[in-house]
């Protein structure tokens, strides 16, 4: 069982529709922020990976299950866990909760791309080791 990375998120007016409910596409924004902050927490930033190592990460596919609505001014927690690590891709499982209530879940496959060709490439070894360590925590 891995230890999830948790990102607190406040729902702002800009996140909602006219009824004060979070617009469905914004859940993807919340999950993206959580994955990005998890990477930063591991000591890596997208800019450095792009400029120094010539790699970027892109979403290959994502499956979301919208369970309950998030609303204006809610205080949420986005949890992120690495569930699978391959040579050039990762699978994340993510959950958005208000208190102990699950609002949305997602399973997201991320692929590592070469910045020159935008073709899949191996995740750099130093980063792959971090991902493997994070995915195997007990």
Topology:
Elements: E1 5-10, H1 24-41, H2 46-53, E2 55-66, E3 75-85, E4 89-98, E5 101-114, H3 125-135
Describe this protein with a few key phrases.
Thiol Ester Dehydrase, Chain A; single chain; 5-stranded antiparallel beta sheet; 3 helices; elongated
Task: Write up what this structure looks like.
The longest helix has 18 residues, at 24-41. The protein is 27% helix and 38% strand. It has helices spanning 24-41, 46-53, 125-135, and strands spanning 5-10, 55-66, 75-85, 89-98, 101-114. The protein is an alpha+beta fold. It is built from 3 helices and 5 strands; from the N terminus they run βααββββα. It has one domain (5-135): Hotdog Thioesterase (Thiol Ester Dehydrase, Chain A, Roll), CATH 3.10.129. The chain is elongated and about 45 Å long.
**What's the total helix number?**
3
How many individual domains? 1
Regions with little confidence, pLDDT below 50 for 5+ residues: none
Task: Give the overall shape.
Answer: elongated
- Rg calc: 16 Å
Main sheet properties: 5 strands, antiparallel
Give the termini distance in whole angstroms: 5 Å
Rounded mean pLDDT is 94
Structural class: alpha+beta
What is the CATH architecture term? Roll
How many β-strand runs? 5
Percent of residues in helices comes to: 25-40%
Order of strands across the main sheet: 1-3-4-5-2
What's the CATH superfamily, by name? Hotdog Thioesterase
Percentage of residues in DSSP E strands: 35-45%
| The CATH topology | Thiol Ester Dehydrase, Chain A
Topology order in helix (H) and strand (E) letters: EHHEEEEH
User: What is the C-level CATH assignment?
Assistant: Alpha Beta
């Amino acid at each position: 069982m891995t230890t999830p990375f948790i990102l607190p998120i406040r729902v702002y007016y800009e996140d909602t529709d006219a009824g004060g409910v979070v617009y469905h596409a914004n859940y993807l924004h919340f999950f993206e922020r959580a994955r990005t902050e998890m990477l930063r927490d591991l000591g890596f930033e997208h800019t450095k990976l792009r400029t120094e190592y010539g790699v970027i990460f892109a979403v290959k596919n994502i499956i979301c299950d919208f369970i309950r609505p998030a609303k204006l001014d809610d205080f949420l927690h986005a949890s992120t866990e690495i569930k699978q690590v391959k040579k050039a891709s990762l699978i994340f499982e993510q959950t958005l909760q208000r208190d102990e209530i699950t609002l949305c879940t997602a399973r997201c496959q991320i692929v590592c791309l070469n910045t020159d060709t935008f073709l899949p490439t191996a995740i750099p070894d130093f980063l792959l080791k971090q991902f493997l360590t994070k995915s195997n925590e007990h």
